[in-house]
Amino acid sequence: MTSAYQQQLAEKVERIQQQFQVFQAPPLQVFPSAEQNFRMRAEFRIWHQEDDLFYAMFERSPDQKQKIVQRIEQFPIAHQSINQLMPILLTEIKNNLHLSKRLFEIHFLCTLHGDMLVSLIYHRQLDADWHSAAATLAQQLNINLIGRCRGEKYVFGEQFVLEQLTVSARDYCYKQYENSFTQPNAVVCQSMLQWAVDAIAGDNQDLLELYCGNGNFTLPLSTQFNKVLATELAKSSVQAAQWNIARNHIENIKVARLSAEEFSQAFRGERQFRRLQEADIALADYQFDTIFVDPPRAGIDADTLALMQQFPKILYISCNPDTLYDNLQQLCKTHKIVQFALFDQFPYTHHVESGVLLEKVTT
Predict the structure, then answer these.
(1) What is the mean pLDDT of residues 46-75?
(2) Strands (E), 182-300
């Protein structure tokens, strides 16, 4: 009997194949998810009802006009460690007024190897009694704990977790901060990283990466190139990427704090950026033959697309098939798709993560 997940995955595959057939792409490689316990993050509202409180999520009424509160006892799509902690944590909070008073949300962030970070979000200021109770709770449950209220943040333990992902038999350690972007499905993320490394393996020179985030792809891809220049605008992501590079003892990566648009200007010689000089980066030192992009859902702007078309090889990871489709209409004027993949990061939703490798068409 075909499971609901397998049926939905088959529908995603058919949709992507039909949407992208105009580009004459090679057969689609499909990387499925586990059907349960795949999410490393979970966020819940805390619903107060008389003397009780519980984890809650919302769904729309049939007429779409109201939100209906759904009590959550377990969350099967979340990692086992989150499901194990949920009732234990809630019991401790219920039994302590200092922890439960005006508690609004609870966020969980875990790793494949046991790190756990819990964020408690409040609609009140947090006093000395709360601090004492929170410190005890973090120690008792052996978790990293963050308390947030308007304008304030308190940390017990660390404000990050350390994830370990394995690519080509090598383990990579990643610092993942609370409230920063990380791939929610760690096992499928490993598949994405392995696919990217395998797709680009061969005789390469230097890699340019735009939108590098915390270096998720940067680290394993660096094994396939002489040098890597990665760009990212967010300061917190740049700091995380630099920490991850150092922690994993990788010496051929430099990170520049630039947006994709700013790098395009620097690459064309239209502007000079002090941030490149401060990072000891000279673009003339690189012989780029590959560009890698993992952009936000909005896709890539016209100037950056024009920049990408100058590279012999383009490796593109997309979280939005529609913007990928739009971008490929431009990129396929100069390049052809030689590998095409679907990664089911988000089971039971319509969202799809895709990967394409393009090579420049020679005339």
Answers:
(1) 89
(2) 206-210, 227-231, 253-256, 288-293
